[in-house]
Amino acid sequence: MSGTVFDIVLCALILGAALAAVSGRDPFAAVVFFVVYGVFIATAWLRLDAVNVALAEAAIGAGLTGVLLLGAVGRLARLRETAPPARAAGPRLLAALAAGGTTLLLGWVFLTLPEPAGLHAEVGANLAAAGSENAVTAVLLNFRAWDTLLESIVLLAALIGIWALSPDAAWGGRPGMTQRTRAGGVLAQFGRVLPPIGLMVGVYLVWAGTKQPGGAFQGGTVLAAVALLAMMAGRIAPPRVSAPGLRLALILGPAVFLAVGLAALAAGRFLWLPPEHAYALILGIEAALTVSIAATLALMVIGPPQEAP
Amino acid sequence: MLELATDALTVALTAAGLVFFLAGTVGLIRFPDTFSRLHALTKADNLGLGFIVLGLALQAESWHAVFKLGLIWALALVAAGTAAQLVARTALRADEGGRPTRQAEGRE
Amino acid sequence: MIGSATLYGLCGAALVGIGLYGFVSHPGLLRRVLAFNVIGSGIFLIFGAAGYRDADAGADPVPQALIITGIVVALSLTALAVALIVAHVRASGHGELPEDAGE
User: Fold this and answer.
1) I need a labelling partner for A125 at 20 to 30 A (CA). Which of A54, A64, B39, B68 fits?
2) C75, A107: Cβ pair inside 8 Å?
3) Nearest Cβ partner of A60 from C1, C15, C72?
């Protein structure tokens, strides 16, 4: 009973934060509400017993997306963007009606879904041969490895797209701006204290991801956050986008994943993991993916190079 | 008997934590300027989180879990303190006129 | 009594509506990206809740894995969209598309 009350309150908070995020006047406030909304959604995932998703939502949906959007608000304010005119009431009403209709339709579809069949049983039956006790990691890295391989390539493609937007003169330079902070100041101290702990947490999330909730995406996001923090605190400068080491880090994950898949193809089937080596292979792929995910996510958030190299 | 006592203590500590959260939130909404709002927010929330962590630590099944709870509190303290300092500095600059600028003191 | 899965599934449906309204009604490009993310997480919530309707079996791992993939792809798209918007504003000085700028 108290669980239901909690769920109802949480749903109300989620909807309220979402409304504030999409309809508020001030863009900064809208982004802040969006971050709050992400934390509420992560809590909802905990209620749905999906700890892996909760970690991903908190780290990526609320954390990195929030940093990205806040950075964009700041950049647009510096460009003195003119305030867009508000829509007239008529079209707004029409939009509200259409949106309400979509919600009713979706709600009706959800309530009339056929009896749950689910894939628990199939996943459970094959888990022993998958090389991961965490069923979600097993699905990501073994049963549906295609998705994950293509996803890591999507990340890379998005980063290339972002870099393509850099001015010609800045190509090959450092992304974003180099931050300078007062040596011994609060931010510099913070940038000294947090990275070691963040590194440990990030690596632990990957390592533990085959047994407990966690994995390459959650761990990689934490590592990306550590790198961003170190850059914001002026501890490290963003790397040049033309640096060979950086390029290697970016393609390491997809390359290792692809190599394992092709080796499996030689033995019979693309991306098939032999049960006796599955654990080692998953750990190896995850380690390589983590490096690439962390580097890609951090660079995506900083944006395209702006200064000449 | 002992179990009842720890349960009661947990309820009392988390309730105390919630009071601090409530006070901090009311302060955040009601106080007139950035600095007093920050004061309400950081002091109250850090203490509030501290009480809740203490209350939960009594229910923890292992020292391992207690350590993790303590780590969460310590990290939240460091992060909140840093964020408050940065917000205050930005607000101070904005008060002194002109838009806030970044501290520029040479690279390392 | 309503189960958690039903409640969050309907909440997801409402989020899709809220996001859709924001996406259509707000001309500001950055706000549209934000609304798009709300639509996305609403869909994830419907999907995840549908995989949790059999609460005794626990959360279905396959939707969970697909949702994690979806969250990461959503971030990639958001990052690319933000970079495009900044480039657009830098070139044109407007935070909305030309057809939305006038009446």
Assistant:
1) A54
2) no
3) C72
Note the pLDDT tens digit of each residue in A256-290.
999 999 998 888 888 888 888 888 889 999 999 99
Contacts of C33 in chain A (CB under 8 A): 69
Q: How confident is the model at residue A127 (pLDDT cuts 50, 70, 90)?
A: confident
Q: What is the DSSP string of chain A?
A: -HHHHHHHHHHHHHHHHHHHHHH-S-HHHHHHHHHHHHHHHHHHHHHTT-HHHHHHIIIIIIIIHHHHHHHHHHHHHHTTPBPPPPPPHHHHHHHHHHHHHHHHHHHHHHHTPPPP--SHHHHHHHGGGTT-SSHHHHIIIIITHHHHHHHHHHHHHHHHHHHTTS-GGGTTS-BB------TTSHHHHHHHHHHHHHHHHHHHHHHGGGTSS--HHHHHHHHHHHHHHHHHTTSSPPPPTT-HHHHHHHHHHHHHHHHHHHHHHHHTSTT---GGGHHHHHHHHHHHHHHHHHHHHHHHHH-SB-S--
CA B21 to chain A, closest CA, distance in angstroms equals 16
Domains of chain C, first to last: 4-101 (1.10.287.3510)
Domain limits of chain A?
134-309
* Domain residue limits, chain B: 2-95
Mean pLDDT, rounded, of chain B? 83
Out of C12, C72, C79, name the one closest to residue A151 (CB).
Answer: C72
| pLDDT for the residue C101 | 63
